[in-house]
Amino acid sequence: MAASLTALVALDAKFSHLPAPNVDLSPIFPARLCLSLHDDLGAFEAWREALNIDPATVVHRVQSGGGTRVLKVHGLFAGADIELVGFAPVPVPEPVVNTGAVS
């Protein structure tokens, strides 16, 4: 897990001004560092840009019955695979109000 821990220290030193993500380390993927951000896709984008990860590689999906947007991308930083994940609610469209007016 040396690579992921080294990357974590380097991320803190270089990007402490960015919103704090949730950080996950796993012995199953010892060279991977997962950073997840909740309810703020702007924070996800700030991290993606700071890590210089190509926006074309971001994968978008929905979960929770279509109620949650999920953005996921991988990149390399300081010798570790960085998995960046953003979660946010899917915006609910404004209901159309029928005024009964005929044009």
Uncertain stretches of 5 or more adjacent residues: none
What order do the SSEs take from the amino end to the carboxyl end, as H and E? HEEHEEE
What's the shape?
elongated
DSSP strand count: 5
Rounded mean pLDDT is: 90
Provide the β-strand percentage band.
25-35%
For the largest sheet, list the strands in their spatial order.
Answer: 1-2-5-4-3
Distance between the termini: 67 Å
Q: What structural category do the secondary elements indicate?
A: alpha+beta
Note the total helix count. Answer: 2
- Biggest pleated-sheet summary: 5 strands, mixed
Radius of gyration based on Cα positions: 18 Å
Describe this structure in words.
It is a single chain. With 103 residues, the protein is α+β, with helices and mostly antiparallel strands. Helices cover 23% and strands 35% of the residues. It has helices spanning 2-15, 41-50, and strands spanning 22-25, 32-38, 59-63, 68-77, 80-89. Strands 1-2-5-4-3 form a five-stranded mixed beta sheet. A hairpin with a 6-residue loop joins strand 1 and strand 2 (32-38).
Helices and strands in order:
Blueprint: H1 2-15, E1 22-25, E2 32-38, H2 41-50, E3 59-63, E4 68-77, E5 80-89
Parallel strand pairs: 2-5
Antiparallel strand pairs: 1-2, 3-4, 4-5
Features:
single chain, 103 residues, alpha+beta, five-stranded mixed sheet
Structure, briefly:
With 103 residues, the protein is α+β, with helices and mostly antiparallel strands. The protein has two helices and five strands; from the N terminus they run αββαβββ.
